[in-house]
Specification:
With 149 residues, the protein is of the alpha+beta class. It has a single domain, classed as Gcn5-related N-acetyltransferase (GNAT) (Aminopeptidase), CATH 3.40.630. The protein contains 4 helices and 6 strands. Strands 1-2-3-4-5-6 form a 6-stranded mixed β-sheet, with helices on both faces. InterPro entries: Acyl_CoA_acyltransferase, Bact_Acetyltransf, GNAT_dom.
Length: 149
């Protein structure tokens, strides 16, 4: 999709699951490579995309985005649920390139807005969002749909 100085941004496929599982593990998300491969296939079949950054080896970064209609706007909203760059490769513009590719994919999907989910305990990500033009828009709550023991 995008290439800059040996860095390629392209759609993540099931074959990249082992490398992406390693990248996610560095951020504390332990996902079995086989399960991740199935999830990547499911994303490709839904209103979603997973884009990864590659530069001479294992994946350097990942962005996962979904889009959905809302009552508030005529055009769908795109939501980034994952934005991750390998800690050793941060501050090189990879996150900005992933964000640019995600925004382009959202425009192609007909979206009018782009939002990103962050946790309050990730100040670096919050600062990145502010620096790339996102405005804070409140907080969110999550509830499991399974009965808790």
């Amino acid at each position: 999709m995008t290439s800059r100085y040996g860095l390629e941004i392209r759609a993540a496929t099931a074959t990249e699951a082992p490398g992406l599982a390693d990248l996610l593990a560095t951020a504390g998300f332990a996902i079995d490579a086989h399960d991740l491969a199935e999830r990547l296939v499911a994303l490709r079949q839904a209103s979603a995309t997973a884009l990864m950054a590659l530069q001479w080896g294992p994946p350097s970064g990942l962005v996962v985005m979904h889009w959905y209609p809302t009552l508030e706007a005529a055009r769908p909203r795109a939501q980034i649920s994952t934005l991750l760059v390998n800690a050793d490769e941060r501050r090189r513009g990879i996150g900005r390139l992933l964000l640019k590719a995600a925004a382009q994919a959202a425009r192609v999907a007909g979206c009018g807005e782009l939002e990103i989910i962050t946790r309050s305990d990730t100040p670096a990500l919050c600062e990145f969002c502010r620096a790339t033009g996102f405005a804070e828009a409140g907080s969110r709550f999550i509830r499991s749909l399974r009965k808790q023991g």
